[in-house]
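Workshop exercise sheet. Pairs work together: one partner reads the sequence aloud, the other fills in the structure field after running the prediction. Swap roles for the next sheet.
Pair: D.N. / O.F.
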Amino acid sequence: MAVRKFKPTTPGQRHKIIGTFEEITAVVPEKSLVTGKRSTGGRNNDGKMTMRYRGGGHKRKFRFIDFKRNKDGIPATVKSIEYDPNRSARIALLCYADGEKSYIIAPNGLEVGAVLMSGADAAPEIGNALPLKNIPIGTVVHNIELRPGQGGMLVRSAGNFAQLTSREGRYCVIKLPSGETRQILSACKATVGSVGNSDHALESSGKAGRSRWLGRRPHNRGVVMNPHDHPMGGGEGRQSGGHPRSRTGLYAKGKKTRAPKKQSNKYIIERANKK
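Structure field:
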């Protein structure tokens, strides 16, 4: 895992910083774990544009990722580390002893040939998935379930990790990447280690065209619109004062949008922004 910076031979190369892809060992995905993925272009089933600034971009195939890791007690060998256009993390192809294949999010330090396990009897080593009650306190984890058997929902993007800090009855206390500390049932599974491709945060696209390859079209600011189109639009020259707000009038900075009586509030020990 590393990044490379380009010489400024063209304007597009001047600020470009991308990964070296040195950890990638296979170029073609496993055919049985891939399906076509249609591009919506921001349109709904009526063809109406419901999400602006989407469209175009390179075709992608969707890779089925095993977030549940429910093949307990069956060893799996890592066959390859692959690129996935649908997420920032790399993915690893596992071949189980019974012949089944599946993709998982590749943790930092995972190498081809490693043997992984899942279940309560698995060792707390990188890439193994086991219930939180069987993971030692202080361990770095990712791909954490919120409900037993649901499949990993938290901490799945490149370079992220959470830490198991303590246990309270049938709950474990987890410190999440956002800074939030919350309780999660001890029966929920998590994968040991941090998510790979940690240099993703250092990458810089270098040019507008790379956003178009990703299916992101140019985004128009509210202040350059007319009053009819946006609360911040209009006026002679540039206007001063006022608070940034969305197209629908909601304040953009600092407005609390979380439901005050949300059921999961009781599990959150410390908020991320501590305000």
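Discussion prompt: The first helix runs from residue 11 to 14. What would you look at next?
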